[in-house]
Amino acid sequence: MAHLNNQFTKALAEIEPDSTDKTNAPLAHERVREVLERDDQLREYGADTILIGSYKRSVSIKRMKDVDVFTRLPDIPSNVESQDLLDHVFTVLNSEFGEDADGHRRAKRQDRSVQVSFPEYDLYVDAVPARPTTRTDGAWEIPQRGESNAWVPTNPDKLTSLTTAMNSTHGGFYVRTVKLMRQVRRNLLNKGAKPGGFFIEIATYNAFSSGGVSGTDHAEYFVSALEAVSTILDEHVRFGTPLPDPTMDNASIAVRATPDEFETIRTQFASAAINARDALNDDDPGTAAVAFRKLLGKDPDGQWLFEMPPGYNEDGTKKASIEPGSKDVPGGSRRYG
Amino acid sequence: MSVLDSDEVLAHRRFLFEEGLAQSGYRQQGGAWVGTVQHREGTTEVRIDISEQFPYRPPRVTPTTQSSTVWSWHRERDGALCLVAEDDHEDLWWADPTQFLQHLRGWFDSADDEWRDDRTDMDLERYFPISDDRRLVMYGDLAACDGRLVRLKSLSTYTLELSPNLPPVRTRKSNHDRIGYVANLGRLSEPPRSWSTVQQLIGEEAADTFARAGADTLILRYQRGDHEGTVVLALEQSQGGIELRHLNSAPATTEALRARAGRSADQLCDRNVAVIGLGAVGSFTADLLARAGVMTFTLVDQDIIKPGNLPRHLAGPDAIGLPKTLAVKQLLVNRYGVPEDSIRTFDSRVDNPDEVLTLMSNHDLVVDASADFSVTAMIHHTAARIGSHAISVALQNSGTTARIDVLPPLDGEPLPSTAQPNTEDEAYFEAGCGSPISPSTPQAVIETAAIGARHAIGLLTNTPITRAGEARQLTESQQ
Fold this sequence. Notes:
The complex is a heterodimer of chains A (about 325) and B (about 475).
Chain A: H1 5-15, H2 19-38, H3 40-44, E1 48-52, H4 53-56, E2 66-72, H5 82-97, E3 107-109, E4 114-118, E5 123-132, E6 140-143, E7 151-154, H6 156-169, H7 173-188, H8 197-209, H9 218-239, H10 259-281, H11 285-296
Parallel strand pairs in A: 2-5
Antiparallel strand pairs in A: 1-2, 3-4, 4-5, 5-6, 6-7
Helix pairs in contact in A: 7-8, 7-9, 8-9, 9-10, 10-11
Chain B: H1 3-23, E1 27-29, E2 32-39, E3 42-49, E4 60-63, H2 97-112, E5 136-139, E6 149-154, E7 159-163, E8 178-187, H3 195-202, H4 204-212, E9 217-224, E10 227-238, E11 241-246, E12 249-251, H5 254-258, H6 265-268, E13 272-276, H7 280-292, E14 296-300, H8 324-336, E15 343-346, H9 353-362, E16 365-368, H10 373-386, E17 390-396, E18 401-407, H11 442-460, E19 469-473
Parallel strand pairs in B: 5-7, 5-12, 8-9, 13-14, 13-16, 14-15, 16-17
Antiparallel strand pairs in B: 1-2, 2-3, 3-4, 6-7, 6-8, 9-10, 10-11, 17-18, 18-19
Helix pairs in contact in B: 7-8, 7-11, 9-10
């Protein structure tokens, strides 16, 4: 059995968003929230902004590129159309943030949100306006992409509280495992390939929620989660089993990915689960570490995220210098001085 | 091995230890490893702390709930388990997680068994923090002092001596002294850890006596198994009230010296030895014999200590000008408590067989360290004539050979000669010295004396090491 606790701890530290992003993110989102909450029209709608997204749930991994601000508008009249609302949010943010040094507008209207760029931080803030619903699960509605006055239900704040609760139930291992799973996805799929990290996060939540994930340390949780998520992906891709959205009643997650992309993530996670289990069961920590590092990949600088334990070469063999041969004390025991 | 390699070896050993803990179900929590130990009568959760000094220092183990494990002699002051005795620092065995966890289980099994067949380490002081007064308290036989107030007289910046005959009061002249009370606690099942527990153990009356006298020190005698121990505790005021702290202390008894003198000490204390020649080799031979327990000596040498002798002689600069016999005598008396009147000195040469005969008749052994051919010959012939044996100890061949001869051999032939032709070393003469100064080194002197002392002790205890002696080449660095 190879638990490699310190190596997992260090890998987690490596994928943690760096301190610059952690410092800049609040500065950026607070600026956007302040602008939105200051607008007369949105104030009339009862604007109440909250942070959502992977940053809020502490499951983001390096490099953190965006922060989501959810703007709840409890008093918005029901006749305000979704595209009009997005237009208004765009106008508010565009007039405030204007253009960047290259002459590009910093506010950009997207399908469901308005994105504001912060070039000085190399960071984006997505402002998502939302109106209340009469649903009993507490979900809100946000503009639906591509259609005039279409709305889609969502409950991001619930996901934040579910994440906190799940993390607490598992002694902090849930959030850390989600980060590792997102990193595995990033490593195994090509850049820009779908499904994205949120899909894997929800699959991981469902895996935990079903009781299929357990462990007592990083290695056990990681391997167990990979196996459970692999099973969920297999059922989803091969048999069309829906991936439940834990934040809303009778809802499931829908993501934009091609059948090939789904097949790729299915097969990649299936192999990853097998390799991870073999690594955990391996009596040789060197070869186990090599297997784990292949799953987690490298950082943008090309450095492995999972370091080899002390005394092992990059290929998992033991270094010559630590092979037995030199006794601690050549004279042996029972000496007196 | 480079420093980097060495660092990696240590990191690797730590990694293997931690991996072993993980495989045994221990989990990292806040820098420590937490897990359970299943032992004969239950399961106990413990916390294992691995220090930066690992593997040179064993991990510390503490029950996560202190009260879940019985307090005993086998727990440290802070509740950690005493897993590795001070004299068990062998082989860094604790770096092997399997051995370590097995040992840990063994600790709990022994605790379940109430430490039957327990080794009785006499280390009560471990359960009290050390006092700021770092002077060493030396004490003699304490049995006669039980229940009495005593003065701990300040002898120097570093020492206090328990003086049962001095009045137990401080005067202006003796304000560096301490006033103590000697109590016998008898057999202790577990170590006391606080002033209130000690008060209960010594009894109300003793506590009153202690307080009335303004005493500040407790000398507590106690028993574990068949052994008696003593701890000296200072009563000190702390933020939380009165606190007991331990003073460094040690017995200054014959037994304490004898315990470290080797297994032959009891036999050797009844033997008397004549040492002829108290030069470099002879002085150290006499010193080693006294350390080993010989208490009666006759020392014979006609020379005095000169400054040039100091690098190779036992005596120090304060002995310059003294006869070598007297210089050595003073050291044996002062260092090892050899009674003055049991060391006779003759500041003269041994120059006739009758003197040798007298010395041989009156002593259990004559040690010839004269390195004088005629003296050694006289001793050899006399010993052969009366059917006795002497021992000759010398350096030879400009200090490159240690030569020890049993004269005559116990049986058989003597060792073959090891004398080599004179080298062309430039001889160095000093004013007042009739022969050139030997180039023998101090280390060769002490090594030769040590070999000679071993052979002498063998003859004195009727367990000779060899029949005829020993010759050893002493290779010196060529630098």
